[in-house]
Amino acid sequence: MADSIRVVIVDDHSIFRSGLRADLDASVDVVGEAADVPSAIAVIGETQPDVVLLDVHLPGGSGDDAAGGESVIRGCQPSATRFLALSVSDAAADVVRVIRAGARGYITKGSSGAEVSRAVHAVADGDAVFSPRLAGFVLDAFGAVAGETATATDELDRLSAREQEVMRLIARGYAYKEVAAELFISIKTVETHVSSVLRKLQLSSRHELTAWASERRLL
Question: Which SMART domains match (predicted)?
Answer without folding.
Answer: HTH_LUXR, REC
